[in-house]
Structure formats: structure tokens, C-alpha cells
């Protein structure tokens, strides 16, 4: 069946006028689907047919694709919720950082766009469109190409782009030349059909299979079995639980090592001086991965070591079904501060304060005793008040009550570079003289079983692209006319001029008597 | 309908149903995904074991059977958490006779900081320091967060973010055994 280009009716147009609108086909044939009508266009009765028809339309597919692109773009305007600073409440964060726009962005759920039901629906519609549009075209096309006769009606041949008349006496020689150009030849009586590279027609469909695999990968990412992405901060010597593993997996940071560029190396010297600080070259964490069974949260876990290894930037390691990446670090978090006190006689005594978990009372050699009244691990002044921003000892400050033997008590505020007497007297003094630091390693713990699917999808996509782009499906029909001469018609699905040149060369070669 | 049409109808129906199934599965998975990390109403509250900083004794949730438990995640550096503390102190005294226990789990690192805070606010209910594990088990990622747990160990109510103070008593009444 063919479609009348004027009334879009379903007609057997070959030769005669369209019985519906009466017009005669004078244009060249639309050979996209071998001049056959797309299957979904044939009937349209049930709801299923209507839905099918909607998805089979490339135009509708394009609308869905554009909507998906638009939505994807909108999701990149502000950071997604997964990437806002840890510990901030989303409702508060978006309003505070981005004003009214941020408030609406959060309110409309655009901060979790990529995992929203409607975005998933869009991807689903896109998948449906690709799948159904392919089915609707692939099967009729395959059928038409498989069943194609060698003898075609004269009208069909005359409606092709390439049409010639020629006298061919030595048909065998011409066929030999065609075979030399890698045409496959079929014969029916005195008529011939030479065809090559039919597989190029399947390119778009192979390509679509690749796309569908990519969508399938995105779908599987929704399942924790296929995809899990966790991030942990671990201090030197600390053991932490990996989130969302049912408290069964623990990682210990044995040692975190930063390797910096050598300042004495003339190659880097200028660059380091310009930067004004040490530039890390590489960072590495020695880790031990542990397993725990029936662990009660908060309790000391009963750890069974699974693996000991070293994870470095760009050198992830595998353990317990996860891949562990070195993906961040914080240098020089304080682990302790050494404070020096001086009594009224000028004799000094030093003491160490653990910044992670300090003790309250300190008896000193110079007769003083210090009581820790308040501790701010990460202090900052806000409206004249001392507050701590986090629980991490990044900028520790202490309030001490220092007492001698004579019952004189002084309250002193001590930070790494600051001392303030709160009682106003200055009989005793205290200051920080030394400190110890440790590093914190940031590890990304991931499981992604969808990567091979994405890779396969990508490879198939590329194969389909090449198949459809680098080869052309070319056909040459030879139909013997009543006078013994031949009507030669040719069709190619793309690159018409190069095809014409090929056929011209073939025919010229034949006429000159040689092999082309 | 001819037989090919019938066949096509069923093929189309199957393909469309399969696609709809996939989209619905994805939607369902999205709904469940957010929940699986968080503790939900009606679920069994994850067990935990921490040390009561005041008494030095172990506090194990599963040993509190027969009592309603309010579990609050907080920290001294969290402003809204601080404001809730005096309310909890008051309510914990009121509900002591009703067999409702308060457990305030601090995310602070140093015991001293918590002790000083407790002294300043004169808090008498159990306060403990988390090592990050309990917060993870409850799927809490922002402070404060409060869980009202019934005597049978199931969660009656979850509040992420600051409590509406006037509702506190209503919520507590729900977990009185």
C-alpha cells in the first residue's frame, strides 16, 4: 500500500489516479519506507491504537525530547539538594542563598528535579517514543525490503530519482562489473535487481537500541542494588560506618598522606611562590575495610577486617562490592593545643589540651590549676558573643578559670592567636605555644553496576550511527522494454550525486567495452 | 478485526503495558528510595546503645520496652536545638510518672561541651553522645530531629527540624503506654 501525497489517503497509487482525490502521482516516490505507509497510519480504532500512534510520531518524539532537554537544563540553574552543604535544611538554605527565586525553586521541587516523578515520566515517555517509533517503522521496512520483487512496475521505476534508457547486449559483462562494485544481483526473467549495503538501513534502529539501553541504565540507577553513592570523612586513626549499609561496613583511616610539590625543584619553584602555599601533588589514604554483624548503632562494633589497602587520587580500590575513591581532604585539623601559663612569679608551666575531647581540670607544675569552663571547637564571634560554628576542632578556643594558691581566680579566653581576660585582671597569663594537627580524608564509597550498561549502550549507539552514516543502501533495477532496450532506474537512501556518478561510470565502462 | 490486526493489537498492548510498568516501577522506587534511609512512622525504631553522660550507665533502646521514648538528635552548636532543651526538661518531669523517657542524643564531639551545656540548662534527663552511628541508623542528616517511640518499640511520630512547641504534649500523650 502507498500513501497519496495529496489527500494522505491509503491508495494503490501505482500508475493510475488516486481514487479518492482523483489526482495523479507525478512527483518522485517517497522511498523512506519503501513508499509503504507506516503501520500506525493504517488504522486507528481503539484507544491502544491512538496511544500507539501518538508515540510513533517523530514530531511528538521531538516535543518530548525538547521538554526533557528543557527540564534537564532547569535542574542545573541552582545546585541540587544532594549538593548543598551538609547539615543545612533545604527550605532554609535555598531561601537564604538565592532569595525568592530559591524559595520557589525549592517549593516547586526543582531542587530534586532529576529524581522527581515527572522527570522520570518524561524519560519514560522518551523511551516509549523511541521504542514505538522504531517498531512502527522497522517491521514494515524489513518486510518491504525482504519481499521486494526483481520486476517492478514501470511507473515505480520512472518515479525514481535516477532513470536512464540504454541498450544492453552483453548483460553478463554488465553484471560482472556490478559484482565488482560489490552489488548483489538477482534475476527474474530478463529483469535484474542489483543491490548493496542494505544493512545501512538498519543504522537508525541499532542506534535506538543503544539509546534505550542508556535509558535502561538510568532506570536501574534507581535501585540501590545497582547504584549507591556515599561520602565519608575519616580522621587519621578513626573508624566510621559507611552510610546505608545497615551498619555492616566500616572503614578505618590508618594514615592519610599528602605529597606536595618540591619547593627546591627549579621546575616548580616559581609556580609555588606565586601560589604562596604548598601545592598538593597527590594524596593517599591507607585504609582498612571492616565488616560487622548484628551491630547495634552506637555500640563498639565487633569488627572483622576484610581488606587493607591504599586508596589514592585516580586509583580507586574495590572492597565489599563497593569502589572507594579518594575524593577530598581537610588538612591540619587541630588534635591538641599546648598552652603555657605563667604565675605572678613568672614561672611557667605547659599543658596539653586535647581538642577532640578535652578534660576539665589541669593541675600545673607552677602551682596553678586551670579549669576548662567552656570549649568552642570552631569559634567565631557573632554579635559580640563567642559561638562555635561546627563540632570540628578547626579553630579551637577555650575559657579557663585559673587559680593560684591564694584563691585569686582569673577567667581567661584563649584561642590560637588571641587571649582575653574576662575578669579584667592580669595576674596570670596563658597563651598557646604549640599545637598538633591531624588530617581528615574524604572518601567516596560507590557502587555502580549500571556503568557497563551505559558503555554498551554508547557502543551500540555509535555502531548504529556509523552503520547509517558511512554506508548507503543502493539499488539498480534493469527492466527490459518491449523494444529490447533496458529501462535503468536507481535508488539510494542518501548521497544521490555520488550514486549517480557510480552508475554513470558503470554504464560508461560497459559502453567502452572494458570492465569498469 | 482480522487476525493480523488482532495480533498487532495485543503486541501494542503488551509493549505499552510493559512501558507503563517500567514508569510506575520507577515512580514507586523514587517514593521508597527517600524513605528507606529515613525512619518512618509505624516502623520499628532502630536499636541503639550509648552511654548516659550523667550516670555513666549504658542506655539501650530495646531495654526500654514498656516505656514510651522520646529520642531527640541535637547539638550544642545548633540554635533551634538549644531552644527545645528547656521544654524537654519541663516535659520530662511531667511525663516521668507516665513512663515516658527522654533520650537526647548529642552530635557534639567533646563530652565537656555537653556536660557544660547540661549544667547550664540544668537538664536531668538522659543525655548521650553519638559517634555518628545512631544518627546514621535513624537517617538523620539535619538537626534537630525528634522521634516519638511507643512502648512496643514502633515509631509513633517523626519530626525533622524544630518541633512545634505547642504540639509537644499531644505527641507525648500518643506514646504514653
UniProtKB/TrEMBL annotation, chain A:
<dbReference type="InterPro" id="IPR007816">
    <property type="entry name" value="ResB-like_domain"/>
</dbReference>
<dbReference type="GO" id="GO:0017004">
    <property type="term" value="P:cytochrome complex assembly"/>
</dbReference>
<dbReference type="GO" id="GO:0016020">
    <property type="term" value="C:membrane"/>
</dbReference>
<keyword id="KW-1133">Transmembrane helix</keyword>
<feature type="transmembrane region" description="Helical">
    <location>
        <begin position="117"/>
        <end position="139"/>
    </location>
</feature>
<feature type="transmembrane region" description="Helical">
    <location>
        <begin position="449"/>
        <end position="471"/>
    </location>
</feature>
<feature type="transmembrane region" description="Helical">
    <location>
        <begin position="205"/>
        <end position="227"/>
    </location>
</feature>
<feature type="domain" description="ResB-like">
    <location>
        <begin position="59"/>
        <end position="425"/>
    </location>
</feature>
<keyword id="KW-0812">Transmembrane</keyword>
<protein>
    <submittedName>
        <fullName>Cytochrome c biogenesis protein</fullName>
    </submittedName>
</protein>
<keyword id="KW-0472">Membrane</keyword>
<keyword id="KW-0201">Cytochrome c-type biogenesis</keyword>
<feature type="transmembrane region" description="Helical">
    <location>
        <begin position="63"/>
        <end position="84"/>
    </location>
</feature>
<feature type="domain" description="ResB-like">
    <location>
        <begin position="433"/>
        <end position="504"/>
    </location>
</feature>
<dbReference type="Pfam" id="PF05140">
    <property type="entry name" value="ResB"/>
</dbReference>
<dbReference type="InterPro" id="IPR023494">
    <property type="entry name" value="Cyt_c_bgen_Ccs1/CcsB/ResB"/>
</dbReference>
Automatic annotation (TrEMBL), chain B:
<dbReference type="GO" id="GO:0030313">
    <property type="term" value="C:cell envelope"/>
</dbReference>
<dbReference type="Pfam" id="PF00578">
    <property type="entry name" value="AhpC-TSA"/>
</dbReference>
<keyword id="KW-0735">Signal-anchor</keyword>
<dbReference type="GO" id="GO:0017004">
    <property type="term" value="P:cytochrome complex assembly"/>
</dbReference>
<dbReference type="InterPro" id="IPR050553">
    <property type="entry name" value="Thioredoxin_ResA/DsbE_sf"/>
</dbReference>
<dbReference type="InterPro" id="IPR013766">
    <property type="entry name" value="Thioredoxin_domain"/>
</dbReference>
<dbReference type="InterPro" id="IPR017937">
    <property type="entry name" value="Thioredoxin_CS"/>
</dbReference>
<keyword id="KW-1015">Disulfide bond</keyword>
<keyword id="KW-0812">Transmembrane</keyword>
<keyword id="KW-0676">Redox-active center</keyword>
<dbReference type="InterPro" id="IPR000866">
    <property type="entry name" value="AhpC/TSA"/>
</dbReference>
<feature type="domain" description="Thioredoxin">
    <location>
        <begin position="39"/>
        <end position="177"/>
    </location>
</feature>
<dbReference type="GO" id="GO:0016491">
    <property type="term" value="F:oxidoreductase activity"/>
</dbReference>
<dbReference type="GO" id="GO:0016209">
    <property type="term" value="F:antioxidant activity"/>
</dbReference>
<protein>
    <submittedName>
        <fullName>Peroxiredoxin</fullName>
    </submittedName>
</protein>
<keyword id="KW-0201">Cytochrome c-type biogenesis</keyword>
<dbReference type="InterPro" id="IPR036249">
    <property type="entry name" value="Thioredoxin-like_sf"/>
</dbReference>
Amino acid at each position: 500500500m502507498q500513501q497519496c501525497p495529496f489527500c494522505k489517503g491509503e491508495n494503490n497509487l501505482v500508475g493510475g489516479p488516486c481514487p479518492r482525490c482523483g489526482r495523479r502521482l507525478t512527483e518522485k516516490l517517497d522511498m523512506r519506507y519503501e513508499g509503504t505507509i507506516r503501520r500506525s497510519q493504517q488504522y486507528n480504532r481503539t484507544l491502544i491504537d491512538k496511544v500507539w500512534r501518538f508515540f510513533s510520531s517523530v514530531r511528538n518524539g521531538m516535543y518530548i525530547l525538547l521538554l526533557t532537554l528543557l527540564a534537564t537544563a532547569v535542574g542545573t540553574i541552582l545546585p541540587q539538594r544532594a549538593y548543598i552543604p551538609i547539615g543545612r535544611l533545604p527550605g532554609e538554605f535555598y531561601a537564604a542563598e538565592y532569595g525568592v527565586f530559591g524559595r520557589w525553586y525549592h517549593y516547586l521541587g526543582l531542587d530534586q528535579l532529576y529524581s522527581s516523578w515527572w522527570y522520570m515520566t518524561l524519560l519514560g515517555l522518551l523511551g516509549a517514543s523511541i521504542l514505538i517509533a522504531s517498531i512502527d517503522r522497522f517491521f514494515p521496512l524489513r518486510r518491504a525490503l525482504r519481499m521486494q520483487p526483481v520486476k517492478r512496475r514501470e511507473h515505480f521505476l520512472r518515479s525514481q530519482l535516477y532513470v536512464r534508457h540504454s541498450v544492453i547486449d552483453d548483460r553478463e559483462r554488465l553484471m560482472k562489473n556490478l559484482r565488482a562494485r560489490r552489488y548483489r544481483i538477482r534475476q527474474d526473467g530478463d529483469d535484474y535487481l542489483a543491490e548493496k549495503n542494505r544493512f545501512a538501513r538498519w543504522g537508525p534502529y541499532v542506534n535506538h537500541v543503544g539509546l534505550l539501553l542508556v535509558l535502561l541504565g538510568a532506570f536501574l540507577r534507581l535501585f540501590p542494588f545497582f547504584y549507591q553513592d556515599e561520602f565519608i570523612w575519616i580522621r587519621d586513626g578513626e573508624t566510621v560506618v559507611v552510610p546505608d549499609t545497615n551498619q555492616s561496613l566500616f572503614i578505618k583511616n590508618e594514615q592519610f598522606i599528602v605529597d606536595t610539590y618540591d619547593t627546591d625543584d627549579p621546575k616548580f619553584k616559581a609556580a609555588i611562590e606565586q601560589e604562596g602555599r604548598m601545592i598538593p601533588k597527590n594524596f593517599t589514604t591507607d585504609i582498612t575495610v571492616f565488616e560487622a554483624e548484628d551491630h547495634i548503632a552506637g555500640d563498639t562494633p565487633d569488627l572483622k577486617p576484610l581488606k587493607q589497602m591504599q586508596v589514592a587520587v585516580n586509583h580507586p580500590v574495590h572492597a565489599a562490592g563497593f569502589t572507594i575513591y579518594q575524593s577530598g581532604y581537610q588538612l591540619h585539623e587541630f588534635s591538641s593545643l599546648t598552652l603555657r601559663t605563667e604565675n605572678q612569679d613568672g614561672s611557667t608551666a605547659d599543658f596539653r589540651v586535647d581538642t577532640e575531647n578535652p578534660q576539665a581540670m589541669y593541675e600545673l607544675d607552677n602551682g596553678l590549676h586551670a579549669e576548662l569552663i567552656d570549649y568552642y571547637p570552631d569559634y567565631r564571634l557573632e554579635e559580640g558573643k563567642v559561638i562555635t560554628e561546627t563540632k570540628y576542632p578547626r579553630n579551637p578556643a577555650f575559657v579557663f578559670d585559673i587559680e593560684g594558691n591564694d584563691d585569686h581566680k582569673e577567667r581567661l579566653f584563649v584561642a590560637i592567636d588571641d587571649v582575653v581576660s574576662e575578669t579584667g585582671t592580669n595576674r596570670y597569663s596563658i597563651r598557646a605555644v604549640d599545637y598538633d594537627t591531624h588530617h581528615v580524608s574524604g572518601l567516596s564509597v560507590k557502587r555502580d553496576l549500571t556503568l557497563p550498561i551505559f558503555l554498551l549502550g554508547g557502543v551500540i549507539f555509535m555502531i548504529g550511527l556509523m552503520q547509517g552514516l558511512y554506508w548507503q543502501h543502493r539499488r539498480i533495477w534493469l527492466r527490459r522494454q518491449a523494444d529490447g532496450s533496458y529501462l535503468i532506474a536507481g535508488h539510494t537512501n542518501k548521497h544521490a550525486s555520488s550514486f549517480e556518478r557510480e552508475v554513470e561510470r558503470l554504464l560508461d565502462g560497459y559502453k567502452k567495452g572494458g570492465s569498469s | 478485526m482480522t487476525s493480523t490486526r488482532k495480533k498487532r493489537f495485543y503486541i501494542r498492548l503488551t509493549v505499552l503495558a510493559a512501558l507503563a510498568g517500567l514508569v510506575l516501577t520507577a515512580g514507586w522506587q523514587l517514593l521508597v528510595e527517600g524513605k528507606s534511609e529515613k525512619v518512618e512512622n509505624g516502623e520499628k525504631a532502630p536499636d541503639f546503645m550509648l552511654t548516659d553522660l550523667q550516670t555513666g550507665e549504658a542506655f539501650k533502646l530495646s531495654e526500654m520496652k514498656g516505656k514510651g521514648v522520646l529520642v531527640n538528635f541535637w547539638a550544642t552548636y545548633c540554635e533551634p536545638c538549644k531552644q527545645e532543651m528547656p521544654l524537654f526538661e519541663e516535659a520530662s518531669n511531667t511525663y516521668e510518672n507516665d513512663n515516658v523517657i527522654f533520650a537526647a542524643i548529642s552530635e557534639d564531639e567533646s563530652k565537656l561541651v555537653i556536660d557544660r551545656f547540661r549544667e547550664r540548662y540544668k537538664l536531668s534527663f538522659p543525655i548521650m553522645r553519638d559517634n555518628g552511628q545512631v544518627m546514621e541508623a535513624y537517617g538523620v542528616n539535619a538537626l534537630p530531629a525528634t522521634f516519638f517511640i511507643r512502648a512496643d518499640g514502633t515509631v509513633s511520630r517523626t519530626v525533622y527540624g524544630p518541633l512545634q512547641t505547642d504540639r509537644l504534649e499531644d505527641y507525648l500523650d500518643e506514646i504514653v503506654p
